Amino acid sequence: MSAPRIAVTGMWSNRIHGLRFDGSAVAAAVLRAVVRAGGEPLTLFAEGASPLVERLRGFDGLLVPGGADVDPGRYGQDPHPATATADSPAQDAFEAEAIAAALALGIPVLAICRGFQLLNVERGGTLVQDLPEASPHRDGVHEVRLEADSALASVLGAAAVPVSSYHHQAVDRLGEGLRAVGRAPDGVVEAVELPAAELLAVQWHPEDTAADDPQQQALFDWLVERAAAGTGSDGAAERVRGIGERVGA
Ligand SMILES: N[C@@H](CCC(=O)NCCCC(=O)O)C(=O)O
């Protein structure tokens, strides 16, 4: 029995310290959290012969992780001096197409930080390009308060959670159809859902603490369990748990 296949969008990077060649950047913590949940993470890159709706066939879920700033041109703004977009100009379009394709195929999506921001932009929303220097969002831990009736609150099993935060941009105007289900004490939107879609998107980095914090690991468990449920094979969720325990990642 094979584990649910989770497509993870990767990016090329020439900023990986000490490497004498370009590398690919996907946080190992993200991949390990998928494996711990019983999933099989496979990285996809912007370059591909066919459209994402074809390339995602055979995958059971999609994860769009953190990364560089979204091109402000995608939300009608000129770049702020502090805005640092992806090395590859194709990265935004690739990940935007991947999210749209996953929603069209009906496979579950987990979007993290940059992924969360890109989703908002692709739904017609905008971003604050640079939060104040002293903002608690830049690199630290802060609380997020959740809407009690949200899917996210039930996945995390709490009304409020401490989160690992690492971003200098934030949602400004919320994208169409998105529901804000989590906010920081300063009002910054930290989580959204798309009603009727199997999608969770968070501004923080659950992978940073998932290895020791089952509450944050639960986001990856949700993705893999929904992916397994999608495969339609009975007992998939049981199978997933069995694989996760065996792997013990
Ligand atoms: N660039 C955006 C998004 C922040 C983000 O995804 N940070 C993660 C960077 C890579 C990592 O360390 O995981 C912003 O800063 O708002």
From TrEMBL:
Highest taxon of source: Bacteria
Signal peptide: none
Keywords assigned by UniProt, alphabetized: Hydrolase
One of the record's GO molecular function terms: hydrolase activity
Pfam family for this entry, one: Peptidase_C26
PROSITE patterns: GATASE_TYPE_1 (PS51273)
PANTHER family referenced in this protein's UniProt entry, alphabetically: GLUTAMINE AMIDOTRANSFERASE PB2B2.05-RELATED (PTHR43235:SF1)
Protein name: Gamma-glutamyl-gamma-aminobutyrate hydrolase family protein
Taxonomy of the source species: Bacteria, Bacillati, Actinomycetota, Actinomycetes, Micrococcales
